[in-house]
Amino acid sequence: MTVQPAIQSFGVQGAMKRYSFLYHHGETNHCPGCGHTHWHIGRATAECANCFTAMPLAEVASTPARPLFYVRSSKTAMAA
Fold first, then answer.
1. Does the pLDDT of residue 58 top 60, yes or no?
2. Model pTM above 0.85
3. How many angstroms separate the CA atoms of 73 and 79, rounded?
């Protein structure tokens, strides 16, 4: 009797092999498109000044997105 090793799904293997590009503040960041190190930094992304490739900021990518909901006048909210 032979024992087969556990086989992971293709999706899990693909996710483990992929590399996620993030812009890290305070480090030298090379553009994945052209290799240059000049960036335009925004609120959520950094854009390469040479080829305009955009990457998410590491600080923004690590925080979960939380939608903001403002209820000003609602009969349901007032009843609760």
1. yes
2. no
3. 11
